[in-house]
What we know:
This protein is mostly helical. The chain has one domain (18-293): MetI-like (MetI-like fold, Orthogonal Bundle). The chain has helices at 10-28, 30-47, 49-52, 84-120, 122-137, 140-151, 155-181, 185-192, 197-205, 210-233, 245-252, 261-288, 290-293.
Amino acid sequence: xxINTVKTPDSVLKKKKDSSGVxxxxxxxxxxxxxxxxxxxxxxxxxxxxMISPYHPYKQNLSEALQYPSAQxxxxxDEFGRDIFSRIxxxxxxxxxxxxxxxxxxxxxxSLFGAFSGYVGGWLDTLIMRMMDVLLAIPxxxxxxxxxxxxxxxxxxxxxxVAISNLPRxxxxxxxxxxxxxxxxxxxxxxxxxxxxIYIVSRHIILNSLAPIIVQASLxxxxxxxxCAGLSFIGVGIKAPAPEWGAMLANGRDLLRRYSYTTVFPGxxxxxxxxxxxxxxxxxxxxxxxxxxx
Length: 294
């Protein structure tokens, strides 16, 4: 009796082998694994902040104002008697949401603009890239301030401002990848087989250009969190009494000499989050680099 066997295409096997090789190289990077563990703890603490935090982040108790760290209040209390540890846990929700959502918006928008610009070419390519050059010429803090002042202070407007300031990076990365990939043989074969431009770009070009985009996004989330904290610190971002890390730094700057813990702990939260993201980003960059993998 003859048994028919179905052979797996070589391209599928190659993709599976490449993905497993990226993961194996990533987990061999101790710094990247440590960053991933720290980030997982921070994300878990932010998601389950209602269950973990011992106090309500908005509840004021003036009789316990400006208490130093103790067994009752691990990170102390602020000038209104609010528990700093509880506020940091809930503030992680805002900072992480702004960081990840703004980078996702910039990643999707920049990738679409870059793919369209690189594939179509001509005067549209020139127009889109000159627009990106204009955005790059404006300092990011000034661009963020202008957008927030024009649209108003809110979480969504802050995410939109940070996303627009980061848009040119992803546009340039995707355009460079498209210019390199659109002349390869498999793209020409798909074009000769009758595939339309949308199918070719989405199926054969963008999917094969995601590696540098993922690396850039992982490194850019930390910058977005710092931008969010900076805008809140200067008073144009998220307003009080929201427990955002940058706003907590701004509230504690007048108390820095006598009650330094009011700014030290929110600052450490920002440092640990950004550091873990950068460590993961470095690990992803090394894992996606075929030269380093060999």
